[in-house]
Write a structure and sequence with these properties.
Bound molecules: 2-acetamido-2-deoxy-beta-D-glucopyranose
Shape: elongated
Helix content: 40-55%
Radius of gyration: 26 Å
Strand content: 5-15%
Organism: Channa striata
Largest sheet: 4 strands, mixed
Subcellular location: Golgi apparatus membrane
Number of domains: 2
Order of helices and strands: HHHHEEHEEHHHEHHHHHHEHHHH
Membrane topology: Single-pass type II membrane protein
EC number: 2.8.2.-
Strand order of the largest sheet: 1-2-5-6
Number of helices: 18
Pfam family, one: Sulfotransfer_2
Amino acid sequence: MGTSRMFHIFVILGSAFMILLIIIYWDDVGASHLYLHTPVSPGPKIPHPPPQHQRPQSSRSPSFLSDIDAFVNQFLEPGTGEPTDPVPAEASNQSEKAEERYVPRREWKIHLTPVAPELRERQERRRRLLQEMCANDSLVFPGKNRSFDDIPNKELDHLIVDDRHGIIYCYVPKVACSNWKRIMIILSESLLQDGVPQRDPVAIPRDLVHNSSMHFTFNKFWKRYGKFAKHLMKVKLKKYTKFLFVRDPFVRLISAYRNKFEMRNEDFYRRFAQVMLRRYANQPTPPASVDEAFAVGIHPTFPNFIQYLLDPQTEKEMPFNEHWRQVYRLCHPCQIDYDFVGHLETAEEDAEHLLRQLRVDNVVEFPTSNRNLTASSWEGDWFSTVPVEARRELYKLYEPDFRLFGYDRPDSLLNE
Ligand SMILES: *[C@@H]1O[C@H](CO)[C@@H](O)[C@H](O)[C@H]1NC(C)=O
Ligand SMILES: *[C@@H]1O[C@H](CO)[C@@H](O)[C@H](O)[C@H]1NC(C)=O
Ligand SMILES: *[C@@H]1O[C@H](CO)[C@@H](O)[C@H](O)[C@H]1NC(C)=O
Ligand SMILES: *[C@@H]1O[C@H](CO)[C@@H](O)[C@H](O)[C@H]1NC(C)=O
Ligand SMILES: *[C@@H]1O[C@H](CO)[C@@H](O)[C@H](O)[C@H]1NC(C)=O
């Protein structure tokens, strides 16, 4: 009696062990073959492009971990009920949805010619500089040493995620961000035009571009996934292609001033211009609205704006507005390993290179800008009315952005 019981247990354990072996074997041998040989979709058979960034393929042994990643990825794929991803009734064809879920990124373009070497080297240089500066103790700024886990969720609100293509964009206001936001809207298909996704970036109205409901940002993760949010963010940060665009920090400030205080902007007038006028321009009772102020020709001067930035009181009241907040505070470049660093000064070449690297240059084109961009050559004129002492303090405030992204210290402004 006892031995037969033992025998039963032994058989059951043995079977379980065999099943386990089969599972492990299947994962190691099956995964790659199965993947290519069973067409899930009836669509055109495009061979799977290699993963975006060819991280060195570590040995096959942690296949269990990569399976977990693949498992997690399934849930990360789109079309699984994202509220920002409305599907029109007629397009919600079950077979199409399934296809999309299991064969994501099928619209990836495959390039047969390599990227121009100078463009590739430019990116390598910028990325190497970032890594060096993050490791270099001579550059110190708040939050530099913290880990990604220590970044508060609300500081992740500038990272826009596109799960369809595996892209993360950190937007920096005053650095072509409207156009890149337009591209993110198109790629994530979050805007529908007559039931089909909008494909033309230029056709997206300005107020929609900046409406946060159009974008899936990392801080919204928190609401959806709760305590798993940070883990999922890290998985995406590891797998997705991350990019940002920057420009000369002082020129960015001039651009912000021109855009927000030289043009009528009621919101910025009430929130910031009135404060500057009261504090730095001897206007104890500034005009009540921006129209009244413009009618009598009153607006804060550029030196007033700089004074506002340097005033310790400003940050005590609230963090810098995103239009003049430092890039290192918006995008956390020492915690997030960006794959692509674009410069506004080389925007067109960088945009072309980036869209190609993302393999979406067949989906969307970067809109050419014909606006009157703030030029670096005006810097001298703009700062001529700012005292040299204030310029030096301002440089200290923005020094991390200068050094992280390779912009030269503006010696001619600081050494007068
Ligand atoms: C759904 O897709 C299948 C196959 O692609 C097609 O035959 C069918 O007509 C589609 N149905 C609708 C409602 O579009
Ligand atoms: C850190 O940066 C300074 C100034 O850019 C440079 O002189 C120094 O060599 C760097 N240190 C390291 C370890 O790279
Ligand atoms: C960051 O770490 C470096 C040494 O690794 C240290 O010199 C520096 O003071 C630290 N900065 C902050 C803000 O903690
Ligand atoms: C943003 O878009 C949503 C829905 O499209 C709309 O309800 C909301 O009013 C918009 N917000 C702004 C500030 O325009
Ligand atoms: C651009 O703006 C600057 C200053 O606002 C002005 O001097 C210049 O003439 C403008 N250029 C064009 C092409 O509009």
